[in-house]
Amino acid sequence: xxxxxxxxxxxxxxxxxxxxxxxxxxxxxxxxxxxxxxxxxxxxxxxxxxxxxxxxxxxxxxxxxxxxxxxxxxxxxxxxxxxxxxxxxxxxxxxxxxxxxxxxxxxxxxxxxxxxxxxx
Length: 120
Known about the structure:
Blueprint: E1 2-3, E2 8-9, E3 20-26, H1 32-39, E4 45-52, E5 58-64, H2 67-77, E6 90-94, E7 103-104, H3 107-112
Antiparallel strand pairs: 1-2, 3-5, 3-6, 4-5, 4-7
């Protein structure tokens, strides 16, 4: 692990496999933070991408470090309400999006979120 004056830098590689969770039926007002708040409870998030749809509303792709965590999140979050929305979201597991389509989760948030499936 490399240490700088400001923060510890933890090298990691991008996850492989079906580690993404597609989240549909989100309100236009849903923020990345709203999505993170719900999906961080299932495990360590690699990144979150949130896109607006032409018909109003939006969708997100939450990418985890493990397929097991993504499957758990997709199953348990299906039908949840996110942000100020009153409509339930729909979820499904998928491969992660290429980096160019994603907003990278800030390092300080990554360091605050711990994957409960990993040993201490």
